[in-house]
Fold this sequence. Notes:
CATH superfamily: HIT-like
Number of strands: 5
CATH topology: HIT family, subunit A
Mean pLDDT: 95
Number of domains: 1
Order of helices and strands: HEEEHEEH
Strand content: 15-25%
Largest sheet: 5 strands, antiparallel
Number of helices: 3
Strand order of the largest sheet: 1-2-3-5-4
Amino acid sequence: MADTVFGKIVRGEIPCHKIYEDDKVLAFLDINPLSDGHTLVVSKEPAETLDRLSDESAAAIGRVLPRLCRAVVAATGVKEYNVLENNGTGAHQAIPHVHFHIIPKPSPREGLGIGWPLKGLDPKAGAALAGKIASKLA
């Protein structure tokens, strides 16, 4: 297990407010929440970014993530929320260990704030890029 704060939490060296655990996934409350119910869903596999995570661990997270979202909604009463996963420091990843955030959005001032600068996609460039990405699928 990686020697990150999440690795230490997974190993039980640092306590957490556990919500869910199985052999591949651990979910617990964020200690610096953006809103009440802010939950972290952590892979027990010590991969730094999602592209380095095994298909098995990714499937385990994908299997439990909707259930955890339903639980956060039910417990907080907040129907709107963000699910966020960052990869690399340039993409705002603070801890180099795959983790998803479930962040309730109870009001415009609470929860995650996002700026989303839109660009256009040229049809020819889009077709070429889609083909290039598809050709890289393993």
